[in-house]
Design a protein that fits this description.
By secondary structure, the chain is of the alpha/beta class. It contains 14 helices and 5 strands.
Length: 327
Amino acid sequence: MTFSPDAESALASLNPGARQVAPDAAGARQLGRSYRGLLKQELIRAIEHAEAGLEAQVPLLHERIESLDPSKRFSPALFSGLSRIANAFRSESSDSVLDALQWLCSMSRKDLLDSRFRLGSILEEHWEEPFVAEIRKPPTDRHREGDTQVQPLLETDLSIVDTVYSNALQLIEEADADMYAEVIEHVTRCKLFQGGGIAALSSPRVFGAIYVRLPEDGVALGPYLIEHIIHETSHLALNALMAHDPPAGKPSGDSLGADSTRPAPSVPGASRHVRARAKPTRPWPSCPLPAARVPPRRRLRALGRGLRAGTGHPGPTGRVDPIRFGL
């Protein structure tokens, strides 16, 4: 997500700490504020463009967006809203633009600023649906069916994972306060899933959220979460920097190579740095859940055919009545 034309002036206003990729607490806070300011400006332009094309007015939405304070963290939903309307413009479909605008209109100011940290399953919040659907992409020449499986956790008790996540953050803070500040600045959600083909990801389309697959049983949760927290936070920081100026995010000069904490955009060295400096006294529980049992695609397809025919069987017993369940 690259912003213009304000990005150039915003880049010039960033201090050196914000313009380097190495962790820096003050720099992370300034970069976050500037990135949110660019998002706000881009959203206003997108809404004005949509109003002109649709010959419609949304003054209440304008008021909510104008009132946003970039010094406060935004909800990932706001970034998802900009992604929706940008995709709608690319589709050149007036209905898609109208739908995207309606989606933004439905968001209250509280929704826009809902940056309280949460850990939970994917698809607990409505703004995630387009992004998760994109992850579950159809087969391509380089991507076979079933390679990527991303499944929600339903009513799984995640209290142990929540506790371990908090402990992992504390360990990061003990090892490197600058890196901890970067995590706190950029990450507002940790979305957990089961499946295969992908371990973790983040995106400027849902900036603030990191998606992490629960590991298999027996894997120590603490080191696993530290690795992915740092890795995905680094991606988010790089996304924010590149939004100001794409070349700024490329490895060049001493900004990447001079800091042993993060010698390159890839960040295994950063998590090793944390583990090396942290107090090695914390016992980590393993994942409390068994290995993910994702139904084979062929079984799901068979169930779908059965539902359409009125003979679907979700298990060895128990018939599904498609009329009763509104299917």
